[in-house]
């Protein structure tokens, strides 16, 4: 059987200048059965294989080792590894046709942090969000790409300036609603960035978010019970008003779904009148108007829940 060729492994960082030494690679002459370099005409060293022109080999006469250097600037994104063969012969003892490989060499091109993260969306995102959207809802999901590898491609998402209504999950890029926007007088604007873990770290261009609250619709005033002449406005904020909420079945017990305030009353009092409290998965804060999860939700068993809340003026006007 043919004798296995000795194998050597080295590496070089991308973007290193031409003539940079391949690190970790030094081939002793004794490992490839080569005599100490021929004192008469010298030893011919040839590299074979795809991409062999990107390197040049030379003999270190003092130590009897074979080394490799780059012949151009390498780009890991274009090519990350080379597998080459090394051939040696003395110019006076072997014709060109008699040259055969004496060793195999693998060279890895290591990554440097030379690409900043990029988003695949436009640099501006405008969202119209129902002001009764449940808290902890994911209103948008961002994903950035980084052409580097390893830690250079590990990303963290962040937002600026900080605001109390929205939070960007650092690892996933999800934008969460964390505080009620009910009654918010104007739109909220913030920017989201992606930053890699390389050194030095690189940051993407900003994606600017503009979130405009959309008021939930109210029933027409002509509906029955809309408060005719002589009737005291003791009941609903707007009689027969309908609020539609989407809540994740993963919402934890104690999570605030939304806040029914502000009310037109100066001293409102909130009361859940349907269903009865022991059957409802949600409680209503008597003074705050907050809807709070009180038990686990299961969409398959209970895909929707209808609630009726009465709002009164505690002054009894």
- The top-level CATH class of the largest domain is Mainly Beta
CATH architecture of the largest domain: Sandwich
Radius of gyration: 36 Å
CA-CA gap between termini: 104 Å
Described by strand count, sense and barrel closure, the largest sheet is:
4 strands, mixed
Number of domains: 3
Overall average residue pLDDT: 81
- Report the order of strands and helices: EEEEEEEEEEEEEEEEEEEEE
Number of helices: 0
In which order are the strands of the major sheet placed? 1-7-6-3
Q: What do we call the CATH homologous superfamily of the largest domain?
A: Cadherins
CATH topology of the largest domain: Immunoglobulin-like
Which bin fits the share of residues in helices? Answer: under 10%
Beta percentage is 35-45%
Let me know the number of strands: 21
Coarse shape:
rod-shaped
Unreliable spans are: 217-237
| Category from helices, strands and their pairing | mainly beta
Describe this structure in words.
The chain is mainly beta and 317 residues long. It folds into 3 domains: 7-110, Cadherins (Immunoglobulin-like); 118-213, Cadherins (Immunoglobulin-like, Sandwich); 255-313, no CATH class. 0% of the residues lie in helices and 37% in strands. It has no helices and 21 strands. A 4-stranded mixed β-sheet has the order 1-7-6-3, with no helix packed on it. It has a 4-stranded mixed β-sheet with strand order 9-16-15-12, with no helix packed on it.
